[in-house]
Amino acid sequence: MVEPMISKRERQSSIRALLGEHQVASQEELKQLLSERGVSITQATLSRDLREMGIVRSAGPQGPRYVLPTMLVDESKPSLDNLLPQLFSHIDGVGELLVLHTLPSGAQPIAEAIDAQGWTEAIGTIAGENTILIVCRSSAARVALSERLIALSQRR
Known about the structure:
Strand content: 15-25%
Order of helices and strands: HHHEEHEEHEEHEEH
Structural class: alpha+beta
CATH architecture of the largest domain: 2-Layer Sandwich
Largest sheet: 4 strands, antiparallel
Number of strands: 8
Number of helices: 7
Shape: elongated
């Protein structure tokens, strides 16, 4: 039996819905979920849809998963409230320097989100793969910022 063709909009709507309902770790898993909804799709089309929709694979506590851009951004800025609980590992500091450790690939989006907050305690951030150096205005600012980040990381 030939499956009916669905529009690109309908297909992408199904992808959005599935990613909102499930923690999808691979394109193959997403392809299977789409198939269960009656949406037949090639690997190339799925990859192209994910790229066009801005969907990215992000590290989480249960492993990598695909996430919608709305989970990562708010008006084109990463949302620290969404990112930190998923990607936070631990934090430590000395003097005016704070070092925040993340899960693999978590440092860049979290550093960008911290910068976007405009907090007066932080002068700036430098991010690697899973480590962020946050330069604070003072030792007291480092302690306050550390406490704030720990509190944010524990929200679920």
